[in-house]
Amino acid sequence: MDIAIKISVVLVALLHLYFMYFEMFAWESRGPKVFRGFNKELFKPTKSMAANQGLYNGFLAAGLIWSLFITDPLWATKVAHFFLACVLVAAIYGAATVSKKIFYVQGVPALIGLILQVLKEYL
Hints:
- The chain has 123 residues and is an all-alpha fold.
- The chain is built from 5 helices and no strands.
- The termini are close together.
C-alpha cells in the first residue's frame, strides 16, 4: 500500500510540474495547440497570468515532493493529505468554471491518492 501511495503522490507531483512548465514557459508555443478553442492572439497578453498559475502549480508539486522526504510517517501523511486536498479543490473549481476534463486530469489522481492514504489508516 505504501508503494501505491507514493506512486500516486509522485504522479500528481509530476502532473503539476508539467502544468508549471506549460504555463510558465510554453504558454505561447504549446498553448494554442492545447487550447484550440481560444483565439491565438490571447496567448501573448495572458502570458503573465498563465505564469502566475504555473507558479502555484509548482508550489503544489513542491509540497507533494516534500511529503515524500519527511521521515515522520504521521507528519508525511498529513502534509501529503493537505497538498492532495488542495489539488482536489482546485480540480473541482476548474471543472465547475472551465472544463469538466480538469477534474479527470487533476482531481482523479489526487482523489485516488487521498483514498489510498485513508484506506491505509483504516486497514
